[in-house]
Structure formats: C-alpha cells, structure tokens
Prior knowledge:
With 104 residues, the chain is of the alpha+beta class.
Amino acid sequence: MNPNMQSTRHDLQTLAARVLKDAAPEEAVVLAWPLVCGSAVAERAAAVCFESGTLRVRVPDRGWQSQLEAFSRHYMDKLSRISGVVVSRIEYEIASVSPHPQNR
C-alpha cells in the first residue's frame, strides 16, 4: 500500500474513533463494522447487534461464515481500537431464508 493511502486510512480511522467515542458501546461497535471489514464485505455481512462483548454478524451462507471466522481476531482487534469498546467475540449467523415467499 502506498504511503498516501496508508495516511488516508489512518486519518479516517482516527476520525471514526473520535465520532464513535460518544456513541453508546452497543452502537459504536455496530457502526464501526463496515470501517473494519470494508464495504465489499459489509454489503454481504451485516452487523446485527453488540452485547456483552459479542458482536453478532449476519452472513448469507456457510461459505461466508467460514471465511470471516478466519479474520475474527483481526476484526476484534480493529473494532476494539476504533470503537474504544472491548470486542471479545464475533458470532456469525447465517441469514435465514424467508419461509413465506412473496407472491409476484
């Protein structure tokens, strides 16, 4: 990564940390999720809630669950640093398919 990109990313994370410090812990972690995982991942893996040190993230399938689990330690460290709240666990839950398909 080039130095300008690193500097910009650091500035964005510093700004996010300042904004999130006044948010409630359960909101700060959920709001920080897209900054930590990136927009492409956040489009498919949505932070649902944060409670008692655990962030719940809804994923589309087991493949996404497996892939993201490999990054959990990295995500927890960055979430804790940016939000100022200790994130001790991330649980990935597979989004359920609606039991009642809509009629067209």
